[in-house]
Amino acid sequence: MKLVTSLTSPYGRKVRVVLAEKKIPFQLLVENPWAPDSAVSTYNPLGKVPVLVLEGGVSVFDSRVIVEYLDHASPVSNLIPAEHKSRMAVRGIEALSDGVTDAAVALFLERKRPADKQSEDWLVLQEKTLFRGLEALAEALGENTYFLGNGMSLGDIACGCTLGYLDLRFPEIEWRTAHPNLAKLFDKLMARTSFKETVPVV
Ligand code: GSF
Q1: 105-151 residue pLDDT tens
Q2: pLDDT per residue over 62-74, tens digit each?
Q3: What is the CB < 6 Å shell around ligand 1?
Q4: Is the terminal CB of the chain with fewer CB neighbours within 10 Å at N or C?
């Protein structure tokens, strides 16, 4: 199978970490979705990365559907619990993390526009979402080692990719000082080969 993604995409990183943790071999196809000649829309009509292209050519997107597919594809390192309540908890943390990432991506793109075209109201709205989402993640983690139980799940992976994206695009945001428990989780994740090998590259 092929994974179409950019090397900065936090959603793409989530999928790459899952592939590495589950030891699933794949071919990496690096694509910039914003390039005028980007081939991404030939894999995904929405023109977004990541896209997983299965043997036979079927495209799977977005990242939440891809990770669901991958967790079923191999029994190695189960990342989404089967039991309903735990499953909802893990997917809820993933949704929260992805939501923070969505706000961060929206902020980053808005700030790239010419200053006179940027909407201050939009920037403030996204910033509020970002900081509220971080608070909620920190509260959900509390003093626990991982979001659910004693082992790493998809929730932790999604949160780690969000925090890594903040470091990449918003190094001025001091989330470690505000939320030392998230910093502790991030350090633990960054000790893993799957996270080390997928640090975003500009
Ligand atoms: C988000 C993908 C996305 O926005 C997912 O896969 O989880 N909910 C989707 N990808 C961005 C690149 S990045 O910021 O990761 C993308 O492909 N944007 C292209 C565009 O035209 O919006």
Answers
A1: 999 999 999 999 999 999 999 999 999 999 999 999 999 999 999 99
A2: 999 999 999 999 9
A3: 9-12, 33, 47-50, 62-64, 98, 105
A4: C
* Tens digits of residue pLDDT in 21-47: 999 999 999 999 999 999 999 999 999
Residue nearest to atom 3 of ligand 1 (CA): 48
Distance between CA atoms of residues 134 and 180, nearest Å: 12
DSSP single-letter state for residue 116? G
For ligand 1, the distance from its centroid to the CA atom of residue 48, given in whole angstroms, is 5
Domains of the chain: 2-73 (3.40.30.10), 84-196 (1.20.1050.10)
Q: Is the pLDDT of residue 158 over 90?
A: yes
First to last CA, the chain: 25
Per-residue confidence band for 201, with pLDDT thresholds at 50, 70 and 90: confident
Ligand 1 mean position, distance from CA 5 (Å):
9
Q: Which atom of ligand 1 is nearest to the CA of 98?
A: 7
139-145 CB contacts, 8 Å cutoff, 24+ apart: 140/93, 140/96, 141/181, 141/182, 141/185, 142/181, 143/181, 145/185, 145/188
